[in-house]
Structures are given as C-alpha cells and as structure tokens.
C-alpha cells in the first residue's frame, strides 16, 4: 500500500449511479473519505483524463477458500484479485468448512479480511445448522456477529415450511434472505441445461423449471412473510416474468445474475470445458438474451462474479464429475462492459448493477462519490484492451473459461477506505 496525505483525481469522468451523476470533474480523497477538492493540500495528483471513476464494486457472491478449502485459495490471495477487479465489498457465502453457522466462524472470516485491508467481506450466515436444511441456525447470534443476510447456499431445505420459518425468523432481525432458487427434486444430479446440447453430449440435464418453480415459491413466501428476499444467480428466461410481477407488486424482492450467464451459453459446453461447469448451468441463447434484457430494464438489479476458485484436480475429470464454479473477480467489470457495448445499455445502468443495485439488495444505502462518503472507488480505463491469463491473474486459482481472452476495460486504481490498494499501468 502507498502512504500519502491523500489523492486528487483530475479530469476524471465521474459516474455515480446512486445520484444519477455522469460528468467530468475532480475527486479528492483524504483519510478514509471523499472530500471537497479545495479542502486537500499536498496530495498525490493523478491525471485521470480518459478514465472513469465509480464507487467500488459490490460483489454479492465471492468464495475465497477459507476456512476449510485453503488448497483452492485464501482470503489473502483472492482479496488481491478483488482489488485488481475494482471490487471493494463482497458477500461471503456460508458454504465454507466449517459452515458459517456460528459467530466464531463469522468472526474468523471477518478478522482475516481485516488483516488484508483490501476488501470488505460481508458474511452471509447459514440459514440452517450445518446447511443441512432441517434446523434453523441461531440467526440472532449471526446478526450480532456481523452477518448481513442468511442463505442456505445451494444446499436443499427440508421443505417450504422451514423456508417460511426462516423468512419469518430473518425478518425479525432485519436480515435479507439470499435464496438460490433450485427445486432439487427436479435438478437431481444434473450438470447442464436441459436441451439439445445436453442430450447430444450425454450430460445429466437441469430443466429451467427447477429454477422458475423455486422462484415462484420464494415470491409467494415473500408475500406471506414480508421477508426481504434476494434471488441469487438467476439463469433462465422463465424466471424473469415471475420476478417482474413480484417487483411490480412492490414485494421486497431483488435478483442477481452471474456474469458468466450473460456472456456464455450451453453452446460453450461443446468441447467439454469443465471450467464451464457452473451452478446454475449455462443455459440457452434465448435465456442469455432474456437475462441481458432483464439487466437493462432493472428487473435483475445486480451482476455478480460468483467467484469460486478450485485447484486443478477439481476440474480434472469427466465434465459431470468435476466441481462446479469458476473464478471471476478480475473479469467481472470488463465482461459487464462487453454486455454494455454489445447491447448498447447505458453505462450508468451497468455500473448501477455493480454498485448501487447490490447495496439495495442488502438493504443498505447505495455507495456514492459525494464528498463525505467512504472512499471506496474503482477507477478504470473503459477502452484499454488486456489479456486475461496466468500472468495477469491475481487469483490463486485458474479455473476460468475466459483464460486467454482479450478483454476491454482495465482497472487502473482501486481505493479501499481511502487507501490505494491496487494500481496498474496504462497498457498493462
């Protein structure tokens, strides 16, 4: 980290989705706060002509290996990747080992994140004890320990009755319920989207209805309980009208999509690349189109990395036997910019889905670049091309189908709590 008295970003394009601001100006950072430019002296001046500054990205789903899976990655290693991706805050799912169903595990994760001082980790406590889906966790102690929500990750619950009770319990403590919508009796041990390609490749299918039925149930229970429900990793077109109806009814529901589901489809499974084995699966081209439209319209309010690092052995097996997931912290922003360019979505809308949208899903005030606010910033060059490969990756893992891709949009500076935690050179 660099020791300075502060920073001044000159001639920078400031995009602040929370305030609807898109203008060229100057930003000043002193201590942990954004300050009025005139209030700062003896600061490092950065000519940011051609660069864009937005609030630090908020990622609603990022696994980092600890505790229990240190052979895959660590909070130390993945926080470096997050900083290189412009991410300053990330939600930490509960499916570590031991499961995050106690205050002790929550504090362990938070303490290790504090030591890196590159990223703010917001733990999601386990909805049920040991994620077994039968007995609710002690949400009061999880909330007290710092959890911002509860989730059962992708583990099944014993039934809708326990989900109802979990929503009621979570609402009591002001916790968002992060629901991965999966009807497990339909998805079974599937590994690919149900369609012609799964049939051709002989892969066990997962029908889109395994998701949409769970979304419908979740919305009905949100209406019944009044719980704030966030649907994680929406992948199918069939879920979109259900979400739209819930939002139009002003139910407290929101949703996100993994960036991979906006870029890839089940056609990318044709060469059996196990890095494309993700949950939910990459779906059809029409699903991808519907997801992009839902992001553009705001029905899906957030885009996340769903970062899941694996060691090489976890991906070295026949497709269906490999562990699902891919890394994504560094590719989240440039791939989101690819969607923005291809679909001509306003840039401020895409950046909203990476900053303010996730904050709203958490029930928090959206981050802003207004003087007086916390100095978490991502400063990037939207037109800078770079190659994502082993040399440029900061993650401890390499399980990504985007390895070797030429991407456009390079993070130049990341500030966390006013500290410069990442800097790259133009053209690097």
Features:
globular; single chain; 428 residues; 18 strands; alpha/beta
Describe this structure in words.
The chain is α/β, with parallel strands linked by helices. Helices cover about 30% and strands about 25% of the residues. The protein contains 13 helices and 18 strands. It is globular and about 60 Å long. The protein starts with 6 loop residues before the first strand and ends in a 5-residue tail after the last strand. The mean pLDDT is about 95.
State which percent range the strand residues make up.
15-25%
Question: What is the number of beta strands?
Answer: 18
Number of helices: 13
Label the overall shape. globular
Low-confidence stretches: none
As a percent range, the share of helical residues equals: 25-40%
Judged by helices, strands and strand pairing, the structural class is: alpha/beta
Give the biggest sheet: 8 strands, mixed
Rg measurement, Å: 21 Å
The overall pLDDT average reads: 96
Q: Ends: how far apart?
A: 19 Å
List the helices and strands and how they pair.
Elements: E1 7-16, E2 21-30, E3 33-35, E4 44-47, E5 52-55, E6 57-59, H1 75-84, E7 87-92, H2 103-116, E8 120-126, H3 139-145, E9 149-151, H4 160-172, E10 176-179, H5 184-187, E11 192-193, H6 196-201, E12 205-206, H7 209-225, E13 229-231, H8 240-248, E14 253-258, H9 259-263, H10 285-297, E15 302-304, H11 332-343, H12 347-354, H13 356-361, E16 377-387, E17 406-416, E18 419-423
Quickly describe the structure.
The chain has 428 residues and is of the alpha/beta class. It has 13 helices and 18 strands. 54% of the residues are buried.
């Amino acid at each position: 980290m660099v020791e300075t008295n502060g920073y001044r970003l000159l001639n920078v394009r400031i995009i602040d989705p929370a305030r609807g601001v898109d203008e060229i100006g100057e930003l000043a950072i002193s201590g942990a706060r954004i300050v009025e430019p005139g209030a700062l002296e003896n600061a490092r001046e950065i000519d940011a002509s051609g660069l864009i500054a937005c609030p630090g990205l908020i990622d609603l789903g990022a696994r980092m290996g600890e505790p229990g899976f240190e052979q895959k990655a660590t909070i130390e290693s993945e926080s470096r990747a997050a900083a290189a991706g412009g991410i300053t805050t990330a939600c930490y799912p509960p499916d570590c080992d031991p499961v995050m169903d106690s205050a002790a595990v929550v504090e362990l994760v938070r303490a290790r994140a504090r030591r890196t001082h590159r990223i703010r980790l917001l733990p999601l406590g386990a909805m049920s004890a040991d994620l077994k889906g039968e007995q609710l966790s002690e949400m009061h102690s999880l909330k007290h320990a710092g959890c911002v929500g509860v989730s059962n990750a992708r583990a099944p619950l014993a039934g809708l009755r326990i989900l109802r009770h979990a929503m009621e319990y979570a609402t009591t403590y002001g916790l968002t319920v992060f629901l991965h919508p999966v009807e497990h009796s339909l998805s079974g041990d599937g590994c690919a989207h149900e369609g012609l390609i799964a049939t051709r490749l002989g892969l066990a299918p997962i029908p889109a209805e395994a998701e949409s039925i769970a979304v419908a149930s979740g919305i009905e229970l949100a209406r019944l309980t009044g719980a704030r429900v966030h649907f994680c990793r929406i992948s199918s077109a069939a879920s979109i009208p259900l979400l739209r109806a819930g939002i139009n009814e002003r139910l407290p529901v929101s949703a996100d999509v993994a960036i991979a589901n906006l870029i890839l489809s089940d056609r990318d499974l044709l060469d059996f690349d196990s890095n494309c084995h993700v949950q939910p699966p990459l779906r059809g081209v029409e699903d991808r189109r519907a997801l992009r439209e839902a992001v553009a319209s705001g029905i899906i309010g957030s885009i996340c990395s769903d970062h899941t690092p694996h060691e090489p052995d976890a991906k070295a097996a026949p497709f269906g036997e490999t562990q699902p997931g891919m890394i994504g912290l560094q590719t989240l922003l440039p791939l989101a910019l690819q969607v923005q360019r291809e679909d001509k979505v306003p840039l401020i809308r895409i950046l909203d889905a990476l900053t303010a949208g996730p904050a709203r899903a958490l029930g928090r005030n959206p981050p802003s670049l207004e003087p007086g606010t916390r100095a978490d910033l991502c400063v990037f060059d939207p037109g800078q091309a770079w190659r994502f490969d082993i040399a440029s990756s900061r993650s401890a893992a390499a399980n990504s189908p985007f390895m070797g891709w030429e991407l456009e949009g390079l993070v130049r500076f990341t500030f966390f709590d006013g500290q410069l935690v990442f800097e790259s050179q133009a053209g690097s």
